[in-house]
Every structure is written in structure tokens, then in C-alpha cells.
Amino acid sequence: MTNEEKISRTPFPNSNKIYINGEIHPIKVAMREVTLSATRLSNGGIEKNPSVTIYDTSGPYTDPNIEIDIRKGLPRLREEWILGRNDVEILDEISSDYGQMRLNDENLNHLRFEYLHQPKRAKKGTNVTQLYYAKQGIITPEMEYIAIRENQRIELLNEQTKAMQCQHAGHSFGANTPKSKITPEFVRSEVAIGRAIIPNNINHPESEPMIVGRNFLVKINANIGNSAVTSTIEEEVEKAVWACRWGADTIMDLSTGKNIHETREWIIRNSPVPIGTVPIYQALEKVKGIAEDLTWEVFRDTLIEQAEQGVSYFTIHAGVLLRYIHLTAERVTGIVSRGGSIMAKWCLFHHKENFLYTHFEEICEIMKQYDVAFSLGDGLRPGSIADANDAAQFAELETLGELAKIAWKHDVQVFIEGPGHVPMHMIKENMDKQLEHCNEAPFYTLGPLTTDIAPGYDHITSAIGAAMIGWYGCAMLCYVTPKEHLGLPNKKDVKDGVITYKISAHAADLAKGHPGAQYRDNALSKARFEFRWEDQFNLSLDPDTAREFHDETLPAEGAKIAHFCSMCGPKFCSMKISQEIRDVAAAEKGMQEKSEEFIEQGKEIYI
Ligand code: IRN
Ligand code: FE2
Fold it and tell me: Which residues form a coiled coil (predicted)?
């Protein structure tokens, strides 16, 4: 099998990749257009159904016109935009000691890339973050790309479709969302005040711009990692491609193990979405897994190494302060964050303050040279329903709010991580406190799981919490797979996790009244009511499964136009009956009109 055959590239059914031109910048924004069949009217006529445009995270992989060689990486979409700003320098060599060591190690030649990625860095005295540009009043190509992408061509929706928009939507947390069209200027203004962030390291020019903020579509992140020793690098790339295919807006590479640097290089060069990491994991690998041996120097070198490779956001657990650790002593599940527990161990062993906190400004200095965003880690998040919303969790949240202000002072983009395990009635308090303490920096939560009693189904226990907090204003949801708490997710788990989280995110978008969110629901419902089975499959989040389930009992081609499915059978289909009612009503209305007409005429005749 060749590399390429291992990578999923099948386009979605009845879908075309389309590219919308920018108006300010010469950009082409990728989207997916689903073509629909026509409606057969009861009078024998035919009515066309407009195609539906879908926000597309699958990247060039679903465009059959683009050739992809994963040893060379994806086309570098943003390269010209980045170089065009004249504020970066191209480095001749990798600056981190560890990166250099890997490059000089001849034993690793078989894992090398054919394209040599030359890292870029801000020229001395400049700042290359989108936050910096936004504050200067500059609308970057990235911002325009996002505005066009978020709109999903709603400007093309006709009046009828607009009338179908949800009338009840418009939650107060989404109140700033423009009710009509998102403009590039709106994107800029949201970034400038820190209410939204654009994770896009200048060293990941292959990535398509996207935004995380509560006045935009709710985003989802999928975690992937290679803890299994057996997996090959191609398989790692495929995991990322697979997650993006089903809708992951960002990927976090949580790989550990011996080829972590090379794996990440392959993933970044082949990923159409921004990549996040937790650098302390790799730093821990470098000190052979002994938390006490971690040093600021090892950590700093890891940050530079990953920033030069193109990681767009770093989870940094800088809020785990020495004085908060005792607050977790009485908890049922203690500290469940990996990064949080590593830092807590370090702090207690040395009896010193967390070096991520004491070196925070230096971290900012590094991140602004590449436009890496902070994802301020929730190292003290609750890991059980019993521990939700406790003193440790909220003490850390306040510190994260203070750190966000420091990041902003450096024009470094920042968002805040949140829990975890929280019962439904305690979720809103999380969002309220986050808004209060973190000055509206975007919130990014892991679920939360709304109960602890369903291992094997934690994608569901957490999707409930994720939908709720997304509605309340959480900007990005970190997926949970069915394997959570049990083992390493496989490909099916990754897909199930992503689809489950797309449901949470979209349910939140509907409730918030994001312009255009309901369009796809309406189109799918219309197809369902009219028994356009193919359209119903093709508009769904997972067309393969929808089709497979349908065909399990009614595989014949003819069933795809039948006015029923095997759930209720031909006699008990409510949709069929209700269409018949409509037909009868229409016929009766016709008869009524006719008879009224007749009586009118009769009057004339007989009077
Ligand atoms: C998201 C919100 N809170 C935690 N997360 C994610 O959980 C985080 O971004 C990372 O991908 C994963 C594991 O983080 P810990 O366990 O190291 O905190
Ligand atoms: Fe958990």
C-alpha cells in the first residue's frame, strides 16, 4: 500500500468543493456545496431545491483536483500572506537544541520529510500576532477568509430561506453576533478586544484560517496521540485527516514516545486545521518522565522547537499555583489533568512556585514571535461530579484571568481551558465565572461530562454538557470519545467523538441564533418530509452511516424514492400520512373553492 492509499480522500457524496473569492484580498475560501435533487409536486410538476453550502474543515483532501503527496505536505495556502507582510525572517537553521539534534541524527533519515520546512520568526522588534494587527486596525487575509467562511454564503439564501430562520434564537451571550452577515471588520474588532482568537502560527502556512470566539460558530477540537508503539507516521497523519474530514476545527497532537518531533512534523505539514499541543508532555519526555527534573530551560527549548514547527496553540498550565494544591486534598478524584499533575508534583517537590507562572512573560516573548496562542490549561479542573465547581477550580480560574491580561499586554492571543466533570445545574456558573474573571477571553472546555456513571458512553455524557456550555457562550469544545477513561481511541472512536461534538456545537449555534445555522436543518427536514432519501443522507453530518442504516433493511434502489422507511412501514409513516392529509386538504380546498364559485355563478343564473 502506498502512503496515499492510507489517507482518506473520498469526496463527500453529491458534493463539490467550491472556492469563494475575497473582496479585499486575493484569497479563495474553500467550502463544500451539496447539490440536491428536485421536489416532485403533487400536481406532477417539479421544483428545484437550491444547493446547500457547508463550512468545510476537510481541507484539500476532499478536492480531487488537488494532488497531495504527504511526504511533501499540503499546498502552503498562507505562505504569501505571511511573507507579504515583510515582518518575518526565514531562519537557516532550527533554533532549538533538541530540534537540531533530531535533524543531525542520521538514524532518523527514514522519517524525514522531502520538503525541508525552514522556520520563520518575527524580525527583531516586530510582533506578528493577529491580535497585534487587529489592534493596528489591519484586516489581514486571515480575517477576511474567516468572515467569508463563517457566513457559509448566507448572502445567497433567498428570502424564503431567511424566513425559515429560527425566530426564537438569540441568547444573550450571542447577542453581539451580527444577525445578518459577518464582516471582515467584525472579525478584526472581535480579535482586537480579545473576545476571539485566530490560531495560526506563521510556521503552519498549510492551515486554513479559523476563529475561536463566542460570536462565531462554535468550534470543536479532536485530540489525537500516538501512545501505541506500533503506529506508523502515515497512520498518525491519517488520524488527523480523518478527524478533519468529520468536522474537527483544530487538532491537538498529544503524542508521546520516541519519535514525537518527527510525528508532529508530519502532522503539521499535512494538516489543514491549526494544531495545538501541551508542550510540558514533550518536556517531560526529555527528562525521562521524571517531573522533578523539569527545568525552565528544557521547557523553553521545547516551546521554541514546537513554535518553529508550526504549532498554533499551547496548553500551558500556569495557573496551578503552589498555594492551590492543598485545595485538592479532599477531592474524590484529586488532580486529573495530566499537565496539572506534572506541575503540582514539580511545585511540591521543589517547594517552589510553578515555573510556567514565574516565567510567564518570557513565554509571551517567545509566543509572539510566531503567533502561537495561549490555551491556558485548567490543571485543577474537577475530574468527577463530586468535585465540580470547588475552591481549587475557581481559584485557578481567577489566576488564568490575570494571566490572560499579561498575554494581552504582549499582544499574544489567549483562550482559557475549562472543565471537566460538571452536573447540568452547575454548568452555567462555570460560564458566568469565566466571563467575569477572564475579561471575555474565549472559553474552551473538555465536555463537561454531566455524570460519571457511563464509561463507554462518555462521548454522550459529555456532549450534553458541551451543548449546554456552547449555548451559554463557550467558544470551543474539546471532544471526548467513547474510550474516555478506558483506553486509546481507535479510528471509529475518533469519528464518533467528532460527530458527537459537531452535534453539540451545531445545537448550540442554533440556540444562539448564528445567522445561517438553521439553513442546513431546514433543507434536511424538507428532504425528509418529501422522501428525498439521497438528499437526506447527503445533508447529514455522517452520510455514510445514515445511508448504511437505511439500507440495512431496505437495500433496494427503489426504496430510495419510497415514501416510507422500515421504522414504521408503509402504513404507519406519519410523514406519508401527513402528506396525504395535505393532499386531501388541498383537494377539499379546491372543491370548496369550486363549489363557492359554482354557487356564485348559480346566484347569477337563478336570481
Ligand atoms: C480542554 C479543556 N480543558 C482541557 N482540555 C484539553 O484536555 C487540553 O487542551 C488537552 O488537549 C487535554 C488534556 O489536558 P491535561 O490533562 O494535560 O490538562
Ligand atoms: Fe474524566
Answer: none
